[in-house]
Amino acid sequence: MDRQGNRSARRTHTTGRGRAALAAAVLTVSATVAGLTGAPPAAADSPALGSGTGVFDGKVPLTTTKTATSYLLQDPTRGNTDTVDGQTHAILTDADNVWGNGLPTNRQSVGVDAQFAAASVWDYYKSSFNRLGVRNDGKGVRSVVHYGSNYPNVFWSDACGCINYGDGPGNAHPLTALDIGAHEITHGVTSATAGLGYSGEPGALNEATSDIFATMVEFHANIPADVPDYFIGEKPDFNGNGTPLRYMDRPSRDGVSPDYWSPSLPTLDPHYGSGVANHFFFLLAEGSGPRVINGISYDSPTVNGAKLLGIGRTKAAAIWYRTLTQYLTPNANYRAARTATIAAARDLYGTTSPAAAAVAAAWSAVNVN
Q1: Backbone angles phi, psi at 290, to 5 degrees
Q2: Which of 184, 201, 234, 286 is catalytic?
Q3: Which of 59, 77, 177, 242 would you label with 120, given CA atoms 20 to 30 Å apart?
Q4: What is the pLDDT of residues 219-228, one digit of tens each?
């Protein structure tokens, strides 16, 4: 399932027949979604401030489009970012601009989560890096909710520039959490910039990039219903036991992902191989050892016993973004990422800056030398 252009936040292994079926489904939905109108194009002066209650996000503000008879879940202030029902193939509409009730049984509720995620991603990249949309072309993302039937996953498609959310088993377990949406949309950013591959170490760096910026979007949005953290996919309960998919402070907490680089890393599924870069980012941003952030306890180790002080997540993310957009190439490995992030830190903060030294130290702490 995890292939170039259609990448999933969840670790899922699909048979050859399943991959072929998914590919056909993606092409079908991409063609359908690309041709959707749902309503006449939004006028420049048509934004309306509404609100919604999502399954995972709680009550959040939404900018929508007012028409003569209703409201569209389409945001003309963010490149016409919109949300479509995958069953009706129409942009979601509402009579009073108050969307959803927080329950999965309400078809608007997951739309609220999806639209808020796309808007939050737009806001983070714009305010942090002056980036306007996934391809930096001023165009928003289309979110397709209620994709398929009993579909237990979510994926990004470069073909349509859209993110597709399944409703999970029994169509009752949606996957529209903020960090999951931000993770998938960031695959589009990676595709439009470094173009990282999707196997071995390039794939691991690709997945880590999505985890890093999903985390940053979550901190930037800072909503009460989803307290910002360094976990990935904790809200939808993918594992069925209340645990996150991934832990950035100590990736091995999931039982599979490595904390440190080793020669066997290129053989891992990219979702697991990403652990090394996720761990690097946590160490760079927050430092090593035990700490509490937003009421959540973390304890990040180092392979060499080094005690590291973080430079802050804002600086760490700026370094990773410059690395992604200026230095990484499709076949980049972890050693190349070390070189590139040091160069990016020197560009941003100075050749002999503490930030550049911290980058080198954080990579050494995860055994990338």
Answers
A1: -75, 145
A2: 184
A3: 242
A4: 999 999 999 9
CA atoms within 13 A on the CB side of 138: 2
106-121 tens-digit pLDDT: 999 999 999 999 999 9
- State the Cα–Cα distance between residues 212 and 275, nearest whole angstrom: 11
Half-sphere exposure (Cβ direction) of 128: Cα atoms closer than 13 Å: 23
Residues 6+ apart with CB under 8 A from 137: none
Q: Which of 146, 183, 220, 271 is catalytic?
A: 271
Q: What DSSP letter does each residue of 107-123 carry, written as one string?
A: HHHHHHHHHHHHHHHHH
H-state helical runs in the chain: 16-34, 107-129, 178-192, 200-221, 270-273, 275-286, 313-322, 334-349, 354-365
Find where tokens 């995890």 sit: 2
Catalytic (active site) residue 271:
yes
Return d(Cα 158, Cα 7) in angstroms, integer: 9
By C-alpha distance, which of 187, 249, 193, 222 is closest to 9?
Answer: 187
Tell me the sheet residues that pair with 247: 231
Interatomic CA distance for residues 151 and 187, integer angstroms: 20
Burial of 264 (0-12, 13-18, 19+ CB in 10 A): exposed
Question: Which residues partner with 155 through β-bridges?
Answer: 8, 164
pLDDT class of 240 with cuts at 50, 70, 90: confident
- b/e per residue 134-149 (b: at least 16 CB within 10 A): bebeeebbbbbbbbbe
In 130-261, alpha helices (H): 178-192, 200-221
